[in-house]
UniProtKB/TrEMBL annotation:
Name used for this protein in its record: MotA/TolQ/ExbB proton channel family protein
Domain of life according to the entry: Bacteria
Gene Ontology annotations for the cellular component aspect, listed alphabetically: plasma membrane
Family: Belongs to the exbB/tolQ family.
Record's subcellular location: Cell membrane; Membrane
Membrane topology type: Multi-pass membrane protein
Residue ranges of every copy of the MotA/TolQ/ExbB proton channel domain listed in the record: 91-212
Keywords carried by this UniProt record: Cell membrane, Membrane, Protein transport, Transmembrane, Transmembrane helix, Transport
Organism, as annotated: Phaeocystidibacter marisrubri
GO biological-process terms attached to the record: protein import
Transmembrane segments: 29-51, 131-156, 176-200
Keyword flag Mitochondrion: no
Main localization (coarse): membrane
Length: 226
């Protein structure tokens, strides 16, 4: 029965020494709060870009399997207006790409090919919109976090210098691991943005491959003898 108060006191002491994430952030002073605030804003931006681009690329990657067959039938039968209408009614990069080729049927192959290539560049730029910002966050967030750690370490050593021979080791240790939280935050945001960027880049390359295959099929169709 006598051991119960001791256990309770021990548990209270353990709880008291345990710092929450919010406590770690706020105990870093104004500098730590500003750095962590910047990282929080960057994380929100990164998540927004990822979700928005993921949806856009997913929509761009969808394509009716009968689209190319129907387009080939219209062109083979000389129904250029129907072929153009089919492309206009299909909201995909491939359809917009081939529409540029359809409206130029009758001109030189070089003109048709150049038109398709130019539209392809525009579509790729649309798909990659926002990805440079995600890449910047992936590289910049860890550096911002490290900046916060360096500032915290400078302040910790300043406290050591001011204390002279009366150095409080526990206070110094608290200041150091509080400063390190900014590096942890920066790495966390940077790693998420890095993996998100690489994943989206891979998805974009998949769409680009489909556009290249479709453009090649379209040009091959025009090369076929009538």
């Amino acid at each position: 029965m006598a051991s119960t108060p001791v256990d309770t006191a021990g548990a209270a002491e353990t709880t008291e020494k345990t710092l929450s994430v919010i406590s770690l952030i706020t105990s870093g002073g104004i500098g730590g709060i500003v750095i962590m605030g910047m990282l929080f804003v960057l994380s929100i931006i990164a998540v927004y870009i990822f979700v928005e681009r993921f949806g856009a690329i997913k929509r761009a990657n969808k394509q009716d399997p009968n689209f190319m067959n129907n387009l080939k039938d219209h062109i083979a039968n000389g129904k250029m207006e129907s072929a153009k209408a089919l492309c206009e009614s299909t909201d995909t990069p491939v359809a917009r790409l081939l529409e540029k080729g359809v409206v130029r049927i009758g001109k030189s192959m070089g003109d048709i090919s150049a038109s398709i290539e130019n539209q392809g560049k525009i579509e790729v730029q649309k798909l990659e919109s926002g990805l440079p910002y995600l890449a910047t966050i992936a590289g910049g967030a860890p550096m911002i976090g490290f900046l916060g750690t360096v500032i915290g370490m400078v302040l910790a050593f300043k406290e050591m210098a001011n204390a002279g021979g009366q150095i409080d080791v526990s206070l110094l240790a608290e200041g150091i691991y509080t400063a390190m939280t900014t590096t942890v935050g920066g790495l966390f945001v940077g790693i998420l943005a890095y993996f998100g960027y690489n994943y989206l880049t891979t998805r974009v390359e998949s769409v680009i491959y489909k556009m290249e295959v479709s453009a090649t099929e379209f040009l091959d169709l025009l090369h076929e003898p009538v």
